[in-house]
What does this fold into?
Amino acid sequence: MRKLQNLLNYWTVSVSFEEIKKTFLLAVPIGIGQLGHVLTGIADYTMLGHHSSLEMAATTFATSVFFPIMILGMGISIGLTPIVAKANGAKDTSKINKLFSTGLKLNTIIGLLLLLILLFFGENLSIFNQDPDVIDGCAVYFAIISISIIPIMISQSFKQFIDALQDTVTPMYISLFCNLINIILNFFLIFGFGGFPELGIVGAAISTLVSRSLMVVIFCLYFYYKTKFRSLLVNTFKTRMDFVLAKAILGIGLPISVYMFFEVAAFSAATFMVGWISKDHMSAHQIALSLASMSFVLAMGIGHAGSIMTATYLGEKRLDKIKGVAISVTIITLSLRFVTALIFLIFKNKLPLIFVPEIEELIITQAASMLVLAAIFQFSDGLQVVFQGLLQGVGDVKVPSFIAVFSYWIIGLPLGYWYAFYNGMSAQGVWIGLAIGLTFSAVLQILRYRYVLKQLLLVEK
It folds into this structure.
């Protein structure tokens, strides 16, 4: 009882409605902006699901290979944000300027390296042991979207920098606009509207590449016409990379990218396992996963906002405010996750119809059962990603990476495989394993954050 009371006392802190509101207004645009990268893939296989079930399965498989590599790059780019936020809190303008230039160059180089990795996988898609028709169907699509990794990494440089300065609305608007362009182009190029050729899956790939490239153009124009940012953009081409700052970005970004990669790769591995059952099961899995990914990315935005606010307070040397940030993001996350869990449970039979027509009864039934499991792990999934973000803000990124690897790959996936193929639970077994892994991650990340924050406050005293 005494230990419980001590724990409650440790977390007791006054958090006003205004603080929660401030966190919410910072977090939601970040989440929606991050959602843009997910929505591009979702728009592709949703619209292709109404064009051809084989093309939907092919896009699902291609996205499952591409997405972890994209997340690897995005994770590295996030390393820029807490450093800029801390420099902003300390009013170190010179360092902020150098960070932008270095971050943009570093992310461009990383984008080129990731492209080489994607091209390698594109030539060896058969190693994933999927239906040959699915592999053949996605080859050109995968090659085209692989090129889009470069504009993704460049746009991430702009986005993470602006986010760190607590302007999260501008990147959100840019992301939403470019996703709208992707959807419009999909109508023309997938279905052949307006006299355009009916290109199907290839049309979806072209739309994706164009919309992601457009994002870079818009960010550049925004920086050029925004007076306070113009010199940053111009000077980037006149200065060399600061390798000390690049090392600092990688020091935070690489561990972040590791745990983000292993989480997303775990779900991609789950997709491959479900694909061993049938392509219809894989399509159902992707429907449920798409919906769960949307709520996950929103939670990731909340965690990212927590990271920015925490790092800013560290730069301002206001450690007394950090506990309030943790409590604010936890309240917001649990509230939003309660809503998404209810939506999944109430509309489990209706939501799959967004992706496929009513005649696909097997896909709809399987997706509905997976959405029930997705509703169950909404809370643990939200908490684990939010506390990862809070740990980023205090500069603790290595231990959370080990927690992620342990939870997903040592606990979640092996259990999912056993439930699915040795316990007769089929695709639902994979999801049960993932739910258990996410719960382990949530508990361990919270315990880690409590320990790190306690040590930080002791040092201050």
Observations:
- The CA atoms of residues 101 and 239 lie 8 Å apart.
